[in-house]
Amino acid sequence: MQQVSEMDYLRMTGRQKFLYRFVTFFKNFPLLFINFFKVRLPQWFIRRGLKFKEIGLTIGRAMKYGDWKTRTSFLVFGFSQLARKQWLRGLMQLVFELMFILYMALFGGQYLGLLGSLGTVETTSGKDEFGFEIKVVGDNSLLILLYGLLTILFILVFAYVWYKNIKAAYASQEITEAGLRLATAKQDMASLLDDQYHKTLLGIPLAGLTIFTVIPIIFMIFVAFTNYDAAHQPPEKLFTWIGWDNFAKVFGGEMAKASKFGYTFAMLLMWTVIWAFFATFSNYILGMIVSIIINKKGIKLKKLWRTVLVMTIAVPQFVSLLLMSQMLADQGAINNLLVSWGWIDKPIRFLTDANIAKVTIIIVNIWIGIPYTMLITTGILMNIPEDLYESARIDGAGPVKAFFKITLPYMLHVTAPYLITQFIGNLNNFNVIFLLTGGNPTSSDFAGSAGQTDLLITWLYKMVMQDKAYGMASVISIFMFVITAVVSLIVYNKSGSVKNEEEFM
Amino acid sequence: MKKQLFALLACGTIAAGATIGLTGCGAGDNSITVWAPLTQQTLVKKLVNDFLAENEDFGLEVKVDVCGEDNAYAQVSVDPQASADIYGFANDQLMNLKGCGGLSFLSDVMVEKIKSTDDALAVEAGRIGDKYYGYPYAADNGYFMYYDSSVINETQAQNIGDVIAACKKARKYFIMQLETDGAWYFGSFFYGAGGKYDTEWDGDELLSANCNFDEFAVDVNGVASTTYTIGEIGAQAGYDVTHDKNGAGFGFLHGNDSVIEQQLSAGTLGAVITGTWNAAKIQSSLGENYAATACPQYTSSLDGRTYRMAPFIGYKMYAVNGYTKHVSQSHRLAQYLASETAQQQRFDSLQIGPSNLKVQQSDAVKANVALQALFSQKDYAVVQGPLPDTYWSVLKTFSGDICTGAINSENLKAKLAELIEGLEA
Amino acid sequence: MAKKLRSKKAAERGSNIAIYIILTLISIVWLFPFLYLVIQSLRGEPGTATPYFWPKQWTFDNYIKLFTDKSIFNFPKWYGTTLIISVFVTVIQTVFVLVTSYALSRLRFKMRKPLMNLMLVLGMFPGFMSMTAVYFLLKLIGLTQTFGLVGLVLVYVASSCMGYYISKGFFDTIPKSLDEAARIDGASRHTVFIKIILPLAKPIIIYTVLTAFMAPWGEYMFASLMAFGDQDYYNVAVGLKAMLDKEVAYLYFTRFCAASVLISIPITVLFFWLQKYYVQGVTGGSVKG
Fold this sequence. Notes:
Chain B is α/β, with parallel strands linked by helices.
């Protein structure tokens, strides 16, 4: 489609407008990528460069003009502040330094040196006095990698605190020299509840996030470059760096062909996207229709209908899905019922035939999802001004037309973020597939025990839990991560809720 | 300031934790842990108490926790060093467990001891190279055929064709699990016709695997076509059966434990190939018509020759964790938990088939129809030894493909080649 | 004219009847699995599946035995454990989420935008991939095995601030003029948060509480890892799954169903009680349900 002038755009019908926006959105997608690499990324590097220059200058200045108190701060954290009676700040920095030294000496130091090789001493076995096997435990590659990364992170934080400490030391010197009063501990505390309130609020949550999410993710990214698998399980065996070999198995020509991983990845990625699309929109449209029906004037017992639907949310998913898979089995309740009613001769292979299973899964997902959609859309639907419908009715529009002309556009506008969250959630929807089909039926065309209804995420689960192919699984998860992350970042930041956050009210 | 505060918190937690963690390692040094399945908790706790009463010099506390024998590898491999000192496992996980360091080999004295008391196959099932890693205590991890003696007589029960015919006549089903989850049962057709799957190991590393399954399915003019036979059975499986009003559908039915239960309670179970875990319900449902025998023979539709299904047989055994801090004590206790007294009690309370020769010869075990059927296959059954991980995924896929019709006489050869390639990889 | 009106009314009634039929059908389809669960839990005869729908014997034994027969499955203990976990998770997670979303919505600081993007993206990394790493990090601070439950709660809440999105949307809709008025009167940001914003945020607090409370009841993966074989540390999901092992499923399936019904009760009750707030919370307060 070509670029359309404003006049032409205004002349389009609703459907054309939508199509136009739809197409341009996807046409702009590559542009966004190019823009990112050509403009945003270099800019980012330039900004970083400037930042480092500034850091260097600050340190240099403190070195050159600092008095003995400031200069001692280079070695003893917070000394300048302590000497100038800013007890709280000084003490905190000093404690941090001591903790760091303690950590490195007692724990972290030993892992740093081993990071390059991930350990050299193998676990060996010998016999005890009675002839039973005893192990002499060697290096543990997993712990070396994990705790090594932890230590590196700690060092980076240490460097940052060191810089901040020098900056603050010099600043307090300047303030005293200018004859001004330094902030007291009380003032510091007060500012933590006011100007600096975000630090108070976010400190603990972000610490948790860093330790239990960021570090494990970095760890898994590094694992992608190792041969950590069933044959190299620490502490029994060492694993080590193997460069890009795992990536080559998925993406690199010959090796990928031989290992089938590339093909499997492509096929499962396709099904994952198809699944996420249908799962999201079927739930969305149908859920909305259900809630419109319930909302209709003159329909009684509104609460009851809603309650019935919502009850399904209360049963844990692993229970309801387990029952579903039992009922949908080849000789399960539903087939038995259909056969005994004489509707079918042979059981329908709801979960065992790849193509039927894919449809079944989407339908079961509708069963799960509609209550949520209904809950969320009910209120918003009531907010649509009634006169919109009234004027549509006067124009002779039926309920179907009114739905597509008024309801859907309005809802899409308001619930866009919800839809996006749902779509991304469905890309990683583990429960439905895992509990219904477990990814089965399997296929000989696939590698790594993948089945035909496996999503990338359930495939990953099999690779990790059954096959212990950590290296390969990490490669796949990195790519999944990159795809979902990039798509969602672009979409989120383009969507209204982020742009309009300042404008509201 | 925020970053500092946050860094302080983060590092504080780690540093404090590390200190606790490091000092915490010393705790529990005076105790060992045993993992046993949920159903055996009471029994194992009693056995442990008996053992402690007999051995007052043991000097360690013993804690009994839960882990299924089929789940041992999944649990131990997470963190062998924190896993139980003694745990039960099914012998097909032997290689995997060795691979993650979860095994400690037995002393020669112990090996001699169990060799003298237990089934030779069971002892062998715990061997890698010249080392033995397990104290066997159960020999019932296999499958055979249960049947309704009012539907099928003893002679008919010897041939799968006769079994299906008799079931059809009586409007009953012969159930066997094929398809994706049936890889365990499915292999018996290959092995029965003489198929071999040989593996060579160096320690726990698979050096080479050799498989000749493809020799049993060449073409119409060739030798036996085991695969084709299975294909025929598979084609019937579950698709043109169930409750056909004219009774035409009765006969073969593919299905899992749920299906077995359904047919039992509907009174339409004629025969079923499954294991001892289903014995109680089948016995209570069939009553005095309850009977069991070895897996039947089958006639290849192509060469007309008859083969007997050669089922997998597996054992359960206690292992001592390679990372235990109390090696010799753990071995002592493990040996006791698998001893004659323990196996006798295990059979008495839970009907678990013993691997101990004396217990096998006891009258109670001899009167157990299911176990006798299982033991009768000993001479030709295939011990489910060390199998590489790929074995299951490849065979699962193949048996699934055969039953869904993805494999037919045209692409059979190519698919078999793929199967072999997968198995030998 | 009157005739026309009547025919319109008739059409209206016709379509309403059609809608009632549809709604009844929908209700049947949606209730069926739940009813099936309840009926199975009242079945007297054992087995995982029966070829018939209505039980031959009706009984409450399955429920009673859950509490009396604790020889193999200690259901009351699991229930209690899960409840405790849930309560701790609810309290901590609610605080984390509210605090994070308030900070991101109302406070302006340098790293705000990148932080929001980062937290958004981190949640997309498959959780079980990092399970090994998380386990060994917990082991480092001594929160596995003996202190496994503490570790479990920590894992559940540690990254909960990533779920800031919905409640931030809610805070965004509270007029800023309220804060500004209070700030002019000399209130600190802390006071504004506690005294002004929180009282207005009831729907989102309840929404957060609900979602936080529900999660641990169905969580299996981490719970089974942290229990590490010790039955005392099982949560209901881990325990229930053990009831379906092939050796015991025949005898315990009906009891499994009974247990599942019991699990859904607290959640159902909470949900109905707080449904209104849930909807208000998730739709960003723009709806007066």
